[in-house]
Design goal:
Elements lengths: L3 H33 L6 H8 L3 H7 L3 H14 L11 H8 L3 H30 L3 H26 L10 H12 L1 H10 L4 H16 L2
Helix pairs in contact: 1-2, 1-4, 2-3, 4-6, 4-7, 5-6, 6-7, 6-9, 6-10, 7-8, 8-10
Protein name: TetR/AcrR family transcriptional regulator
Organism: Amycolatopsis eburnea
Pfam family, one: TetR_N
């Protein structure tokens, strides 16, 4: 009969090895996607860069599009911990703030801080979607998740009583969703060379003007 202590130890080691492999794969994929683009990056290249077998990559991520989505999720969160964005500290700070303008300021300051890492991954997915059906599904999922997040943010802003009269939750959500899009970062930062802080301030001012009384 196997020693139960040894079995638990072996299981724990396997889980930790799987987590480490996942971290290495995500780091390798992120670098390759940014350097070469989505279409030019292959799963065997990711495996080689991560120092694992290609079968290990496919075991962790069913296909390249799934891997791209995982890279995006980790980039947004800043880590690979199993904590949803809604449970993150910066969201709690925004929710606790009673003033609508301050909520918007906090949110877009955070967005500007992560945009240099996050927006290029979103743009990779958007561009890949034109030629890869699996990437198109991932891009649609990214957009849907953003819309859901902005739905919650809009509701939070409506509760302050400071939103311009006549605007509905849907109106506020759509304004937030539009300014949240990576296209704004692409135009202002990548094409026009704005620093991220200025980009964040522009979004903040535009949203405050558009939705607050």
């Amino acid at each position: 009969m196997a020693d139960p202590v040894k079995r638990r130890y072996d299981t724990s080691r396997r889980r930790e090895q799987a987590r480490e492999n996942r971290r290495r794969i995500l780091a390798a994929a992120s670098g390759l996607f940014r350097e070469k683009g989505y279409a030019a990056t292959s799963m065997p290249e990711v495996a080689k860069a991560a120092g694992v077998a290609v079968q290990t990559v496919y075991k962790a991520f069913a296909n390249k599009a799934t891997l791209l989505k995982a890279v995006f999720d980790v980039t947004v969160a800043g880590d690979d911990e199993d904590v949803p964005i809604a449970g993150r500290e910066f969201i709690a700070e925004i929710q606790a703030e009673p003033d609508a303008a301050r909520k918007i300021t906090l949110y877009f300051a955070h967005l500007a801080s992560v945009a240099p890492a996050v927006s290029p991954v979103q743009l990779l997915a958007r561009d890949a979607a034109a030629a890869d059906p699996a990437a198109a599904e991932v891009w649609a999922q990214m957009r849907a998740e953003t819309l859901t997040a902005m739905t919650y943010f809009a509701s939070d802003l409506m509760l302050t009583g400071q939103v311009r009269p006549g605007l509905t939750d849907t109106d506020v959500r759509d304004v937030l969703w539009t300014y949240h899009g990576p296209e704004q970062y692409e135009l202002l930062c990548l094409e026009r060379g704005w620093p991220p802080a200025r980009y964040g301030e522009f979004l903040r001012d535009a949203v405050i003007t558009a939705i607050l009384d």
